[in-house]
Amino acid sequence: MIAPKKRKPALLALNIASAIAGLGVWWIWSVTGENVPTPVEVARRMGELFADGTLEADILASLQRVLIGFALGCAVAIPVGFLMGWYAVARAVFEPWVQFFRTVPPLALIPLVVVLLGIGEEPKIFVIYVAAFLSCVIATFQGVVDVDRTLLNAARVLGAPTRTIFARVVVPASMPYILVGMRVGLGSAWGTLVAAELVAAQEGLGYRMQNAQIYVDRPTIFAALICIGILGLLMDRVLLLVERRATSWQERR
Amino acid sequence: MSKDIAIRGVAKIFPLKDGRFTALDDVSLDISASEFVAIVGPSGCGKSTLLNIVAGLEHPTSGEARVGGDVVTGPGPDRGVIFQQFALFPWLTVRKNVEFGLRTAGVPKAQRRARAEHFIELVGLSRFADALPKTLSGGMKQRCAIARAYAVDPQILLMDEPFGALDSLTRVRLQEQLLQTWSQDQRTVMFITHDVDEAVFLANRVVVMAANPGRIVEIIDVDLPYPRTEDVRLGAEFTALRNRVWSAVHHQEGTPA
User: Fold this and answer.
1) Tens-of-pLDDT digits for all 257 residues of chain B?
2) B228 HSE (CA, 13 A, CB side)
3) Interchain CB distance below 8 Å, B104 and A172
């Protein structure tokens, strides 16, 4: 759920306490169990990977894939979503495809795209693109459908022609939905990344983990995992901030 | 300046899963230019549908509505509509909301601003011109919506339970302000309400409607002098008229309470 505007200090303290407690559990676990690296080992490995440039290159490669796939997904999903919401004909044309592909996990497309697109960057970006597109298109469509009819009528009685109603009522009114869709889309794009990097990648956080698995290099797996988590969280926060700014006109409870 | 409204044999039938619903059955009504007509009736009597037909937001199944002699085919800037739910664009400030219709009409920016300024002042929202609707109270929101409707200078005001969502004090204040503006500009007003007192206090004539099917059952002239002050509201004549309208609304045959 979306956090309230001003988080109470007590709750923030609880957040921090919870995070520290988690680290503590991990640490105890790593000391008692044999197969788990300690936080210190993982931090050291992260430092090493960072020092020799591996981690930066991996992060860059992964971010690039996700951001390109995500940007393409949104760029196509938003117009398609608007068309589906606004024109019954467009909805009838697109809906079966959207509904069909929604039931297919994007990862299930990997074998197919490898056959079709080879093992370069394209199949990885394509899978991420599909994941982002599906979240975003549904949200945009829903946003347009849910535009308050009274607002459309208000614009009509003020003399607005259809294209003005679209540009100045439908687009702003569906913006909150679109931004939520983009956030969900970014989440699923990021979630598809690791598996997409299974496909003959040479670098990337997902590849780094796969590679480390072969050598049973536990600290590296942990380090890459933590990077994925932190980067995902950061990107989500950035979009949340954008969302807050862009939809600050909304009445919130 | 003002226009009259002529509603001739209007019927509106909505198809339902099981059969059909007659929202309006052969309704005819004439509202002369500069007249203030209130329409009261129980829910489901089709009063809002009738207003929407005059506004051009809905089309009658049969019959027609004419405004200034022309058959209504769609919404137009000659008819300003005030909705119960205010219908302000929440992403626009008060000023931009008021300017919306002017911008649509292609009024140049400077002129637009001046006009908006004027009507914002008229409804007493100058201090809130740059505020977003979410920061306004219900009464202020409706005042903003009224300014937005006035800004395009309609000859007719169509008001669909405009004060229904407001507390009684705010409602009385807005009623008085509405009458004050109306007495100056003499716009034709079609005012939908379920509040009998409000109808009698505001209107020249009160049209009483009944449901199943939606129809006009009685038209009551309100011969009270304007300006209608608190004295009018508390007077015996007002009470007598109010009682007449009340019984016309509430003692309809075949309507469940």
Assistant:
1) 689 999 999 999 999 888 888 999 999 999 999 999 999 999 889 999 999 999 999 999 999 999 999 999 999 989 999 999 999 999 999 999 999 999 999 999 999 999 999 999 999 999 999 999 999 999 999 999 999 999 999 999 999 999 998 899 999 999 999 999 999 988 999 999 999 999 999 999 999 999 989 999 999 999 999 889 888 999 999 999 999 999 999 877 655 54
2) 28
3) no
**Interface predicted TM-score of the whole assembly (ipTM), two decimals:** 0.89
DSSP E strands: which ranges in chain B? 5-15, 20-31, 36-40, 62-67, 70-71, 79-82, 156-160, 188-193, 205-210, 215-221
Nearest Cα to Cα of residue A131 among A76, A81, A68, A188: A188
Q: In which residue are the tokens 């052969």 written? A: B26
Buried/exposed B28-49: b ≥16 CB within 10 Å, e otherwise: ebebeebbbbbbbbbebbbbbb
Is A153–B80 a contact, with Cβ atoms under 8 angstroms apart? no
The model's pTM is 0.84
Interface of B with A in 81-120 (CB under 8 A): 81, 83, 85, 87-92, 100-101, 104-105
